[in-house]
Amino acid sequence: MAEPNPRRSARPRIVVVFYSATGNVAALAEALGEGARGEGAEVRVRPVVERAPAEAIEGNRRWKEWVENNPYETTASLDDLEWADGIALGSPTRFGGAAEQLKAFLDTTGGLWAQGKLASKVGTSFTSASTEHGGLETTIAAMNNVYYHWGTLIMPLGYAADPSLMSSGNPYGASWVSKKSSAPDDDALVAARVQGARLAQVAAKIAD
């Protein structure tokens, strides 16, 4: 007879790990976390450490404002990944891939990977770009490549999760095109909430 799973019926654990330069990806991360909480999940929303040189940040007003005023006191850690049943990764596009800041954090996960501690969790990804064809899908796919190596089960946003996604969503994951430095609109935030809710639902089943 199988041993009972001590986590059975417990709330699913979701961690949202992201990099944001101006706050747009952070807004999507918070909406995703909100959607997961709506499904009863325990949620941690964690930015990764900023690694860009000061002179680069100084040259961009919105980047500088975010670095100086962002509200996060706790940054992402390996413990957050091990704790979670479901993981969401978020980053602005950088030439069709994730930002170096997020990649640097992910490059520290080798120990957890070697121990199999990231396998059989559920993963999903989201992004933002400044242009309509600036690499939204390729950035999400690039982040998902990490899940393949971890053995994490990949959960796309899809279109079936909510009717509104047929007109406003990206089936790869929540995304936002920030024209003229605009913040995510209601459609983008709804897509992120739907993604978070779906991640919590699937993670709960996997944790059981």
UniProtKB/TrEMBL annotation:
EC number: 1.6.5.2
Keywords for this protein: Oxidoreductase
Flavodoxin-like domain span: 14-181
InterPro entries according to UniProt: Flavodoxin/NO_synth, Flavoprotein-like_sf, Flavoprotein_WrbA-like, FMN_Rdtase-like_dom
GO molecular function, one term: NAD(P)H dehydrogenase (quinone) activity
Annotated family: Belongs to the WrbA family.
Name of this protein: NAD(P)H:quinone oxidoreductase
